[in-house]
Write a structure and sequence with these properties.
The protein is of the alpha+beta class and about 200 residues long. Helix content is about 35%, strand content about 30%. The protein is built from one helix and seven strands, in the order αβββββββ. About 5% of the residues have low confidence.
């Protein structure tokens, strides 16, 4: 009789261990999925912000071109500084009169420049720091634009080169965003060709 009781106790113990193992595997899988989903949400949020920052850089260049047309200026005025075509937008996200609209600083040549740092301003808008002129809380994002000349033969030139004797008919705006999350560097680049259709 005591042997049967002993065997029943052993079976119960094995069943409990199996149940504990199954529950542990289920909980571990659920926790892994929760943390994985949190990482995916964080990554997706970063990518949405990066796309919007890149798109905004292109839209600001369009606004400068259109403002030039309305003022009767060359279409690319303010979209280069001699042969320097790497730029950061000076824009606080506020609506400005056309005469004081967005402009570009041509001091940063790569992402190490202070102007490339994107900050969140006190009004909650994300903008390039412009060397500290635009203040706010630094974000993980950096933004740099390269404004490549487009010549009459539709060739797109690198920054630092001009069209020579050919007329310049447009500008390729390349908006590049870099950021890092948990030690993983990421980047995104959008571009659009702006032509002088006037």
């Amino acid at each position: 009789m005591s042997r049967r009781i002993h065997l029943a106790s052993g079976q119960t113990m094995i069943e409990m261990l199996i149940a504990f193992f199954v529950i542990s595997v289920g909980l571990f899988t659920a926790a892994t999925m929760v943390f994985s989903n949190m990482n995916l949400v964080e990554r997706d949020t970063d990518e949405v912000i990066a796309v919007n920052l890149a798109r905004e850089g292109i839209e600001l260049a369009k606004q400068v071109r259109d403002t030039n047309w309305m003022a009767g200026n060359p279409f690319d005025a303010g979209l280069h500084n001699g042969l320097i075509y790497t730029a950061t937008p000076i824009w606080e996200g506020t609506l400005m009169a056309p005469s004081t609209g967005p402009s570009f600083a041509f001091t940063a040549t790569d992402f190490t420049g202070a102007d490339t740092q994107v900050v969140t301003t006190p009004s909650g808008v994300m903008a390039n720091a412009d060397g500290g002129t635009i203040t706010g809380t630094p974000t993980i994002f950096r933004r740099l634009l390269t404004l490549h000349p487009i010549c009459q033969d539709y060739s797109v030139l690198n920054s630092g080169v001009d069209c020579g004797s050919m007329p310049k008919i447009g500008v390729r705006v390349e908006s590049h965003i870099q950021w890092s999350r948990k030690g993983t560097p990421r980047d995104l680049t959008l571009y659009e060709d702006l032509y002088d259709w006037r």
